[in-house]
Amino acid sequence: MTHPLNFADRLIERTRTLGHPLCVGLDPHLPMIPELFRRGSMAPDDAETIAAVEAFLEEVIDRVAGRVAIIKPQIAFFERMGWQGMRMLDGLCRRARAADLMVLLDAKRGDIGSTAEGYAGAYLGADAAMPVDAITLNPYLGFETLEPFVRAANDVGRGLFVLVKTSNPGSGDLQDRDVEGEPLFGRVADGLSRIEADLLGSKTGWSSLGVVCGATWPDQARQVRDALPKALFLVPGYGAQGASAEDAVQSFVPGSNGLEGGLVNSSRAILFSEPARRAASHESWASAFDEALNKAINELSAAVKA
Amino acid sequence: MTHPLNFADRLIERTRTLGHPLCVGLDPHLPMIPELFRRGSMAPDDAETIAAVEAFLEEVIDRVAGRVAIIKPQIAFFERMGWQGMRMLDGLCRRARAADLMVLLDAKRGDIGSTAEGYAGAYLGADAAMPVDAITLNPYLGFETLEPFVRAANDVGRGLFVLVKTSNPGSGDLQDRDVEGEPLFGRVADGLSRIEADLLGSKTGWSSLGVVCGATWPDQARQVRDALPKALFLVPGYGAQGASAEDAVQSFVPGSNGLEGGLVNSSRAILFSEPARRAASHESWASAFDEALNKAINELSAAVKA
Questions:
Q1: Is the ipTM of this complex over 0.85?
Q2: Does A142 contact B175 at a Cβ distance shorter than 8 Å?
Q3: Is A90 near chain B, with CB under 8 Å?
Q4: Overall number of domains in chain A
Q5: Tens of pLDDT along B150-169?
Q6: Is residue B2 part of a domain?
Q7: Is residue A223 part of a domain?
Q8: CATH number of the domain bearing residue B24
Q9: Half-sphere exposure of B7 toward its Cβ, with a 13 Å CA cutoff?
Q10: At the N or C end, where does chain A have fewer CB atoms within 10 A?
Q11: Is B1 inside a domain boundary?
């Protein structure tokens, strides 16, 4: 067992020590990579592009290490660069974990039977090809399809974040539809309660079963919290998508060092602030990056103290 | 434009010529790789494993070329082997397309905004890092999240297969729940009708908007066909999952050379028949493989003639 400790225990202990729940998202959207790091045409499968993005994200990882508990690479942007992007992602995950950063892979995977076992084995299992600490999952194929991930979470101390209510404007197309008196996202939350109970951490009482609930829907987040009192919340939508720090922690509850119970993600407001994108020297980039990072840390620290 | 022709037109013209709708799934589940090709421990990230699986699947591609219209690699099994698995998949897709096989990537992707654009760009766009002809998608995040894929389908003649009713026993957990008098999978089908209309082929009248409907649920497949008369059906569950050829073509309709309107997938019954798994010589493997392939082709040819 690489990590005998329950994921939720590890994560919550770190966020208590740091005093904030910030998760830094790694979304290497090519058109937004800062000037200082750009090389050549930035075409997705160009060797220069791969080297440029890797240099940028290595610096990001080095600068956030020790300041946040966890980072969240969005695998779509690495797949955009083909297998070389996946090789880069593999190296970045290893670098982050060596620097004592936890890694939550935003992959939104979901499939049936041995195919789900394939995904669980790829990222969470004891012999994972690209080991990470947690992964995001899509529940549309049914709760049984989450089981291979639950087994890996139990066996090697990993975490699972299941999509419940996503942050996008059209998330209601299916998630808000009325299913016998309750919205579909509420039915998904109800269906996760057995897994929540299976993955409780003995130290903190939090579960390694998490849910994705966008900061753009604070009322719905409170409803999901009622259904899943011990689930960790992964909250996207803070920062670039317009939600405030206070909205983002709607589902959090009082803990030993302020409100706790999840992660608030920020990707672009930190990676791609205007001053950081335009910086002409390494020194000015680093200072602009730190300013954006500190702003998020300070806002969230204040929100969980309140 | 690499492929100016509409995906549905290209696919249906090929299945008419061949006289059957068989799609061969590439599911390299490591414990099942035939004896003849196994090398070393078959650990997922071992260089010998990568070489063994690649040699096996190259032979499979060469043997099915000219016999079927399309193959369906399941990306989970390649991700299981890390970035080296993705590099292998990239090579296999290129080999297949060079042999005039279409490639449907079974990835079940789904995400929001520019992240969805990342996936669409990675696999479907004009400058895709790993170009394929079609992809499977998960609709849980809402219909707007399909738009980047629809644009790529229109621009470069690609196909989209959206999960509607999956073949697994627990697919009903969410998909069968009653949404204001209709099951959720029916609501998904209804929501796809505008995209169906946007992607019609001028030659055959079929749409490059497809749906995934398991052969294990023939009644539900007929219901989805009523909602989407021009959608292509990708039908898993035939063969190893127990559904008959007749069940698999429940959603098909009379065309110019028998029943048409979709693809019936078979992966393991073809790749991993007992005689093929145990074959001691290349000749006996090839003959066992061809026997399993011919059985599926013959059953499905008969089912669409009936």
A1: yes
A2: yes
A3: yes
A4: 1
A5: 999 999 999 999 999 999 99
A6: no
A7: yes
A8: 3.20.20.70
A9: 31
A10: N
A11: no
The SS3 call for residue A24 is strand
Report DSSP letters for B66-133, one per residue.
Answer: TTBSEEEEBHHHHHTTHHHHHHHHHHHHHHHHHTT-EEEEEEEE---HHHHHHHHHHHTSTT-SS--S
Range of the domain at B46: 7-305
Q: Which candidate from B44, B130, B173 shows the least CB-CB separation from A127?
A: B44
Can you tell me the distance from the alpha carbon of B171 to that of B173, in angstroms, rounded to the nearest whole number?
6
Report the alpha-carbon distance of residue B65 to residue B97 in Å, rounded: 9
Angle between helices B218-227 and B184-191 (to 10 degrees): 30
Query: Testing the interface with A: which of B88, B112, B162, B165 to mutate, by most A Cβ within 10 A?
Result: B112
pTM of the model: 0.97
Does residue A108 carry a catalytic annotation?
A: yes
B306 CB-side CA count, 13 A:
14
Measured distance CA(B214)–CA(A16) in Å, rounded: 47
Nearest residue on chain B to A166, alpha-carbon basis: B141
CB-nearest partner of A170 from B82, B84, B142: B142
Which two tokens mark A188? 């998904």
Partners of residue A169 in chain B, C-beta under 8 Å: 144
Q: CA-to-CA distance for B168 and B278, rounded, in angstroms?
A: 28
Residues of chain A with pLDDT under 50: 1-3
